[in-house]
Design goal:
The chain has 492 residues and is α+β, with helices and mostly antiparallel strands. Helix content is 29%, strand content 11%. A hairpin with a 7-residue loop joins strand 13 (465-468) and strand 14.
Amino acid sequence: MFFILSLLLLAATTIASPTPVADPDPPTLTAQTAFTQYVSCSQDEVNILNQNVKDAAALANTGLDYINDDLTTGTYPQYGHQQVDFSKQAAIDFFGPESQNGPYQQRIFDTMLKASNAYPGWGYSDWWKDRYVALSCIEAPNTKSCDGTTPAYFSHRHDYGYPLVVFCPEFFNVLRSHADVVKDVDQNKDLQQNVANLRSRATTFLHELLHINWGTAQECAGESACLDHFQIIGNKPVLSYKTGRTKLLAQRNVKQAAVNNDNYAYYSMVKFMEKRYKQYPKYPAAWDPTKSRSENEDREKKEPGTPPNVALDELEGNDVDGDTGGGTPVSDNKYPSSAYPDWYQDLVNASFDDDVPDLAQPTTNDLTYNGPDMSAVICETSDGSPDMEDCVNAFGTLKIAATMGPLQGKKGGNWWAAYVNDCALSISYDQDWNDDCKATMKDVDDHASAIFEGCQDPGNGKVGGRVAFGPPNCPGQIEIIHTGGEPPQGQR
């Protein structure tokens, strides 16, 4: 069954799973949000949080591009009809150039997909999968992180039995609703140039959900989930919050950008504005690592469309209790101009004092999906299946070599198109493959991705399954299998 992440707000310190009931209809972005329990929240706060889970999911959904709409079936879009277009400016700005981020594209898409499917519910599948998150309107026990600069934070504590996100007074009193913010930006073309104007409760809510690092509600793949990474700017470590810093992070370390919360949040915001206003919001500009923090901030305040609400500038407190950022601060040099496409060069070569140039993005949409209908996927996930983390990394090989043809083989043979540690993305040949088979590694990627999205078990971190390979004259099966410690054998 296609993975749906659900959220439930829980009220008591000792929390039991709710009594299972029949599954509701497949949830969409307009699903009912009948939250009934909260942690010390007033009715007004309940209403705000209730709306924000929908707003955050809808915002994340704008980061996904729909493709091959004529193939869409069922009551909600299936995996094969959504993708992150890594060839466009938004993805390059926040996740780096395609020439560098291939190994992380599957992780990025998987995270965006889970975030876009966040919804509250009491369905049987939610009870069975234990997919719950506790949302609190008071501080976590023995924690004092609501300091006037932090609108919300993810708590490492396990007191509630489920992941806990705490919302501080500033979340309700300073941040505004997504709808109110959009209404203001709709009426002011100057504000439409600057994505910082879209900052709202929804963006903060999305940011915090990506911090969840345990339980089946985890959205950001990996051992530690997404973090707020430090990077060296002006010879000092600075947290990678907001637009300018996240853009810089993508210019110097795509691996860290793929697990940095605000890269996802601001990518989603940019995509929302680009789709709504039919123009790309090119400000704020990426920060310059050779300049001080104050120099970068001063330039940002002078840029077109700078937000009029100065109170938002103060909301930058640490948003994970006990957390000081992820790992060693990034100090890499920026990628060379040769890593970027020709149409992006004006931006790469712009100086600190230049206006951000307008770019002529490719006008053609080459996004296609050559994979199966999700109903054709046969899931075989068990405790003996490969780790999701290894499979995410294995997809990088397929994406980097997307235009290459897979290895031709003989009936009964098998070839690992990609593998990392215990995960192999495997082709099993039902008949001989010869020159009549025109399949590419992208075709293999599309089929293996359908297995990954349809069969994953985030709670155990495992995935496994198979599906018939669809391209003409290429009869076979695509499988996600455990390597069993075997070395790659080519055709075997």
